[in-house]
Amino acid sequence: MLEAAIKSGLVKELGEIVGSEFVSTSKADLYMYSQDMTYAEPSWPDIVVLPKSAEEVQAIIRLANKDKIPVTPYLGGGNIGGLTIPLEGGISLDLKRMNRIIEVNETDMYAIVECGVTLGDMKGYLDKNHPKLIYSYAFSPPSTGVVTNALVQGLATFAYRYGTTADWISGLEVILPEGDLVRIGSCAVSKGWQSLAPLPELAGLFVGWQGTTGIITKMAVNLWPRPKFAAGLIFYLMDLESSYEFLRAISRTRIPDDVTGDSYALREISRLSMEHKKGSLYPALILGPDEPEFRVSMDISANTENELKAKVKVVEEMIKGELKGVKLFVSHASPTAREADYQRDPMQQNSWDGKEVHPQVGDRQAFIPMQAVFVLSSGGGLYWVGTYGPMSNWLEAAKEGCALEDKYNITRSLYTRLHAEGHYVAQRWMLPYNKKDPEMVERVKALSLEISDMAFKYGYIPYKTPVWEIRRLEERASPEWLELHRKVKKMLDPNNILNPGRWGAPQK
Amino acid sequence: MILDDMEEWLYGCTHCGTCHDVQRIWVPSCPAGERFGFESYFAGGQVHIARGVHEEILSLADDDIRDRIYSCTGCLSCQLQCGIYHRDHIFEIVQALRREAVTQGFLNPAYMVMIDNLKRDDNVFGKSKSERGDWARDLRVKNAAQETVDVLYHAGCMLSLEPELWEVPRSVISIMQAAGVNVGIMGKEENCCGGRPYEIGYEGEFAKYAEHSIQTFTSIGVSKVITSCSDGYATFKNLYPQVNIKMKFEVLHVAEYLDQLINGGKIILTKEVPMKVTYHDPCHLGRHMGEAGVYDLPRDILNSISGIELVEMPRNRENSWCCGAGAGVSQSNPEFALWTANERLEEAKATGATAIVTSCPWCERNFKDAANEYGIDIEIYDIAQIAQKAI
Question: What structural domains does chain A harbor?
């Protein structure tokens, strides 16, 4: 907590920068920024500030740096890692007023956005003004930040093709911890924001650092042409071994835009949430012997109908050939029923009828996945162990993770997404819980810790890393890595003001 | 604590932020959040404040806490955007906080004045009760308290006591008389419906007016109560059942009743009204009514008038942006109420319409004030005024 006199002077100076109506020391506000949906320990900021421009951010950072006041950047707070909880108090810098989409370059296919632009903002703007271009959307609410999700290397609907959202950053504008403004990428030396190459790679000083090395005020991100033809394929696999074989084979086709999978046992909580009802993963939903273990969804797109059909044919032939031995659930539903509401009977969605693959035609790439509500419907709490790791260990990690969930009597809740054409894969164990139920909170804490240990064992590394996981990662890192990391943080942020206590600077 | 009864809903919100925007078109949904920016003003903030108060981390003695909970216009847009199980209870939570504040004795000065006005003159504006029927002084409309009528027209506080809006109830009576309806009014015997005190946390005042209104309407034997006020309509339809007195009369909004008269051939809209208009859906006629929201009928009336070109704003029907006057905000924070109305007028202007039509006097009043304050050149009408032009 800041001393009263310091706080009072700071509030006055911050008010002069952003306007007093955008500075708050009200408990009503501090409370909101002290916590998130995870079980991370609350920690209160002293002041909340809402800047409107890069110049205002610059002035705030200079002021904070002079007085060594911690500054924690904030946008939606929905990172599932406690990343915006101000561990050492100070200023919570809420960036939501910086929400301009500054430029969309139709030819070079990028958008320059301010740090407060959300996925919803982007979708609305592109649909209205540039309908031939699309962005890729995360499995998260529309209030998720375009910039923040990219900075924490989140995953989105083009993961299979291009990797994490950080992989489609093509330019940055950063306020450094001492207040300097710097541009990174082609925009540093030219008017274009089309790429980070071919310059020495400085974006890495900021990407993945959770706002501990600079405040990103603008970012350029790739856009893509809206596909003329698109379809979704959905398959149900009877066991994890089959799921692994299926995912591994599909990853080598280079055909889909996106490949995701999730535990079939999530169907019940998913159904309840879509009916706006509360759901719980506890006690575990036990599947029947004829029910599948896992669902895999694939989005494909094409320039022509024939190209789309040809891509579907490749998948079909793979199922009949290379994947002949995998245990796929066969749907006997009519084509109409296959298109029917997923919630009524999820398996009717199955594309595979034992003979042919039946795609669900529609533009699936350019929408915000509102089905995310099921992870938000258990009582205000959500934690997950989200990791990126090698495909080669997918099966072992999946089996052990499921066994751990069984041990804790928690419904199996694995979510997976192939990245960069199968070069790595996300495994995420999603654990929505009731914040009001202390027993459930403890159950989720203990389970997530065991899953995290298991994931490490198989090379699955947590992303959007909570602070306690950062410390555990550091214990596993080499001393040289750790030293380099600390040096980078110290070089950029000598007074350790930006989101202190996380990467590069443990809490005192 | 009143919030004890709401505990199940207090923990529904993860603070995911989905309520900030109108789904599918991704434009702002919450007036308070949009205006003030801090998370505490959005629906998620309100629910978390309730949680904080319930856990005794926050206190209603804190002026800032009460400022947040009284900044909600009760528009319910958040409830439509939210997908989680507590969605239908968000404004209930806000109202529970307001009731709790009143119970604990932490009173908002603006509302204390309103409640004093109600106690003295049975209206929220502090105007003499004797003025309440002045709008109809020369109309030769029956006094329902003294003469038998089939239909009672309830003008409500705003239309009764704001002379600038008197053309609205006068248009309604004129239309009804032209249609041969045996209509009457209560005049100076008309009272507040009780909706406004309910929304600001004075449940006792609400109950008093609800009981009185139901008993009065029943005793005079009317079959229908018609109102132009969407707030009043939602109060009659949604809140009055709470007092558990059988309502032996049907309540209709003017838009519904006009539609009945038009379809029944009682009135014929023959005159051309050459106007390009947009329609603003009042929150209390729309979202507050749930699946019974009245969205089509006002549009049907407008579309049935020759010369009217109806254009839609991006935020329409269930996703309508609030006018800003709801839930006591126009009394406690008039600057914010006008800001919200101005946002709507700007949206209306952007359609190319020269007039905005609505079905609630609170919306109309706030729009007129905002147009003056912000210098917006747009005409503002009630649906009955447009219908009257066509007869």
Answer: 4-94 (3.30.43.10), 101-225 (3.30.465.10), 228-464 (3.40.462.10)
